[in-house]
Design goal:
single chain, alpha/beta, 2 domains, seven-stranded mixed β-sheet, 13% strand, Aspartate Aminotransferase, domain 2, binds pyridoxal-5'-phosphate, Aspartate Aminotransferase, domain 1
C-alpha cells in the first residue's frame, strides 16, 4: 500500500492514542490546544465590559479567518447557531408565490431536504431529484430547475455517499436566472475547497471537518440573496436598537446589514473562539494540501474495500471524491460496533458505513481499518454458515 503520512500529528488531539479515528465526518477529535482557548475564554468571561470586548474581538478575528478559508469577504459571513438555520432562514425570508419551486435531491441531509416543508401550503413545489445508484447528477439538478425555481439547495459533499458535487458547474448553469444557489458545506469545509463565492448562501457546521464544536455555523450570504430575503429573526444585535442611546422603544427601527444581519443576539463566543483556533491550524496546513491528502486516503480506502469484495458507493473520479468513503451495509451499526472492539472508529447508520480520512490520518490507519474489517466480515460470514 502507498505510504501516506499525516499532515498533522494525531498526538495533537485528545484521547486518540492507540485509536484508529476515521470518523471526522461524524465528530472530529478534540484538539489539545483548545485547552488554552478555554482558559482564555474563562479569564475574559469574568472581566465585565473589557472581557466582553476581547471575546467579541475573537469573533471578528474568526470571521476574517472563515472569509480566508472560503475566499470570500469576511463582512459577508455571519455566525448562525447550526447549519440547519441557514436553509431555514431562506425558507422563511423569501416572498414565496404560488407556483414557485425548490430543487433539491432525495438523498439530502434532512435540513436541506425539509427546510421547505411549510411552503407546500403556500403552493410551493419541492422537486426532489432522485439519486441514481447513490450519485446525484448536476445536469439533472439543473434540468429540474426552471424560471419559477427560487432555490436550488444541495450539500456540497453528501453525508451519505461522500459525493463532492461540482458547485461551480451548478452556479454556471444557473447564471442569468434568479434562482438562488444554497449550499450546505458541512462535509466539505476544512477538507475540500468550498467555492462559497459562487453561491448565494453557504453554511457549515463546525464539529466535523472544521475540528471545532457545536453551537455555531458560519454562513456566507451573497449581496443578491441579502437583497431578496427578509430578515425574520430580530434582536438587539441585528437592529439599530440603541442607536439614539435610549432604552425607549420606537415603532420602527433600522436593520443592520451583513455581517450581523443573521446574528439577532450574541454569537456563541466560546465556540467561535474554538473555531478560530482550529482555523489557524487548517489555514496553516492549507486547504489545497488537505484536499489532496483526504482524496489520496479516499483512493486507498476504496481500493482496499474493493479488494475485500465490498462495493463502494462514493465516486471513483477524483474530483467527485471527498474525505468520506462509503459503502452500503444493512448491518451498519453492528459493523461499527464490531470495529470499535478493535479500536477502529467509523460511522455506521442508515444502511451505510462511512469512513472519513482527515489530515491527522495516515495509510497506517487505512491498513488497520482494512485488517479489522476483514476479520469482522469473516466472522460474520462464518456465523451466517
Ligand atoms: C450535510 C449536513 N449538514 C448539517 C449537519 C448537522 O449540522 P447542524 O447540527 O449544525 O445543523 C450534518 C450532520 O451530520 C450534515 O451532514
Amino acid at each position: 500500500m502507498r505510504k501516506i503520512e499525516p499532515l498533522l500529528s494525531p498526538s495533537k488531539f485528545v484521547g486518540i492514542d492507540g485509536v484508529t479515528h476515521l470518523c471526522s465526518g461524524g465528530e472530529s477529535p478534540w484538539l489539545k490546544c483548545q485547552e488554552e482557548v478555554y482558559e482564555l475564554f474563562a479569564h475574559n468571561k469574568s472581566l465585565s465590559y473589557q472581557g466582553r470586548d476581547t471575546l467579541l474581538g475573537h469573533v471578528e478575528s474568526c470571521r476574517q479567518k472563515m472569509g480566508q478559508l472560503w475566499k470570500v469577504d469576511a463582512e459577508r459571513v455571519s455566525f448562525m447557531a447550526s447549519a440547519a438555520e441557514g436553509m431555514n432562514w431562506l425558507a422563511r425570508g423569501l416572498d414565496w408565490r404560488k407556483g414557485d419551486n425548490v430543487v433539491t435531491t432525495n438523498l439530502e441531509f434532512p435540513s436541506v431536504a425539509y427546510a421547505w416543508q411549510n411552503l407546500a401550503e403556500r403552493g410551493v413545489e419541492i422537486r426532489s431529484v432522485p439519486h441514481r445508484n447513490w450519485q446525484v447528477s448536476e445536469t439533472e439538478l439543473l434540468e429540474a430547475a426552471d424560471e419559477r425555481t427560487r432555490i436550488l439547495a444541495v450539500s456540497q459533499v453528501s453525508f451519505y455517499s461522500g459525493q463532492n458535487l461540482d458547485i461551480k458547474a451548478l452556479a454556471a448553469g444557473l447564471e442569468g436566472s434568479e434562482t438562488l444557489l444554497a449550499v450546505d458545506a458541512t462535509h466539505a469545509s476544512g477538507a475540500i475547497t468550498v467555492p462559497a463565492q459562487v453561491t448565494d448562501l453557504c453554511i457549515s457546521s463546525c464539529y466535523k471537518w472544521l475540528l471545532a464544536t457545536h453551537g455555531t455555523a458560519p454562513c456566507y450570504l451573497s449581496e443578491r440573496a441579502e437583497s431578496v430575503a427578509r430578515t425574520t429573526t430580530f434582536g438587539w444585535r441585528n437592529l439599530d436598537a440603541h442607536g439614539n442611546g435610549s432604552a425607549e422603544r420606537k415603532l420602527s427601527v433600522a436593520e443592520h446589514p451583513m455581517p450581523v444581519k443573521l446574528e439577532a443576539g450574541n454569537p456563541a463566543m466560546a465556540t467561535i473562539m474554538f473555531l478560530e483556533r482550529s482555523l489557524d491550524l487548517l489555514l496553516e496546513v492549507g486547504v489545497e494540501r488537505i484536499e489532496a491528502h483526504v482524496r489520496d486516503l479516499s483512493e486507498l480506502i476504496s481500493t482496499g474495500l474493493e479488494q475485500l469484495g465490498i462495493q463502494v458507493i462514493s465516486p471513483r473520479v477524483r474530483s467527485g471524491r471527498s474525505g468520506n468513503t462509503c459503502f452500503l451495509d444493512t448491518h451498519a451499526e453492528t459493523t461499527r460496533k464490531s470495529l470499535e472492539a478493535y479500536g477502529v472508529l467509523i460511522w455506521g447508520e442508515l444502511g451505510r458505513v462511512r469512513i472519513s480520512g482527515h489530515l491527522y490520518n495516515s495509510s497506517g490507519d487505512v491498513e488497520r481499518l482494512l485488517d479489522s474489517l476483514n476479520t469482522v466480515l469473516r466472522a460474520n460470514s462464518t456465523q451466517g454458515d
